[in-house]
Amino acid sequence: MISFVRFITVLFAVVAVNPIASLETGDFYRPSADEMSGIAGTNATYRRSPCPALNALANHGYLPRGGINVTEDVLHDVLMSVYSLDETSTQILLALVPSMFSLDYLGTHNLVEHDASLVHTDAYFGEDPASVNETMVDDLLGRSIDGKTVGVTEVAAARANRMANCIANNPECTFSASTLKIAYIEASIFILGFGGNVNESVGVDVARAFMSEERIPEEYVVSSTVISFATNPTTHSRIHFDSLTPTIDMVSFANCITAATFAVSAFITSPVEGLDVNLLPEGTYFKPSGRLVSGVVGNTAAFHRSPCPAVNALANHGYLPRNGQNITKAVLGPAVMAVYNLDEASTATLLALVPDTFSLDYLATHNVIEHDASLIHDDEYFGGDPAKVDNKLASDLLERGEASGKLGVTELAAARKARLADSIATNPNVTFGTTQQTLAYTEASILLLGFGAKTNESVSLDVARSFLVDEKIPNGWARASSAITVAEVRATVANIIAATTA
């Protein structure tokens, strides 16, 4: 009897210390504000994000309750089972996060967290990014026309209001370019996901449970059909056009990672309701993804891209046609000079490689500009899309600069040597003659001089990663203060070759 009493005493003591110890998957436990944080890099016991959908999954134990070390395999399964996302939608989501991450990672400002959220205070005001602003929740749900549900009209009005408040009250009101691909969709997932994909509306009580309490309510019914990238193209477009007056950047970006599932379709589908990416202001970043983009020569995808990250970045920011098609030398030349500060002679050398009018996939023609032993693209022999970045190759390249925080002549020379050796060992059709060598070493030189802005023949890892992997001109990046000349490019090429053969 004494042993039993002691056992019960110990059991209750354990539960008191660790309240989640006895919980099963599906049981709800939301840690208190003192126990949790969404600040990136926090050491709080419980990590949370600005995304109520993901926080709800952690609060119910579908994700690790601590919000720590969430793997893509686990996230994949619960997004499909709990919110009924289809496989394509889920894969698009997984591409936005590391293979393992903690929820506070999403609280990094202008990564997923952003200004003008529907339920979170702007970062400028210093609040924890995972803290829900109840006044904003009340404002959103109080807009219900019938008092029972919230739909397109109400959410569009709330979006317009939040954007206006951000501009009026936040002197640093801004939107990270990296969040554009999940723009305009916060309301769509709010309505389609939380609403069970029924009549483009969500019940007020269900919405409050998700948004305010980050709880999956008992009355929530998962969509009877999967929520698909392909089949739900219009809700977010309607919300956008209902709320947008008069310019395209007067709209809130998504703060929930699940929103990204539909991001690209907002720009492509329905000529009446779809959003034309060419309406985006020049300089604004939008990178197409998935089946909508290809670098295969002669492809029919909506967006054409190349094996050249510098040129792709120009298209992703609208300095070239965003669809990557029908580019003229008269457009390419000034863009290269203005953005990367190449001088006229260097620019003329590049223009000599392309026809008067071309699409970006032309650059993927094997052994014309695309070549074997690329630093970040797999060889043509293996049959991949020539515009697709090989993440393993990119990681290998960037890892060479981890000690110094940058890539320089030594690192690129070692990478060039290793890539050629790998191609020779694995590709029976490898070709790396004079033409390919000239292209490869010139590319490496441009990487250091152009992306690195002529800073001691080096480029920081953050800048290199942004250009090479995201094909994005990084925020705050400044081009070289003086024009990059042919002589400078050749000198850096010579230095890399010398280091390669040393």
UniProtKB/TrEMBL annotation:
GO terms for molecular function: metal ion binding; peroxidase activity. This is Heme haloperoxidase family profile domain-containing protein. Residues 25-246, 282-491 form the Heme haloperoxidase family profile domain. Its cofactor is heme b. Gene3D superfamilies: Chloroperoxidase-like. It comes from the Eukaryota. Residues 1-22 form the signal peptide. InterPro entries: Chloroperoxidase, Chloroperoxidase-like_sf. Keywords: Heme, Iron, Metal-binding, Oxidoreductase, Peroxidase, Signal. It holds the Pfam family Peroxidase_2. Belongs to the chloroperoxidase family.
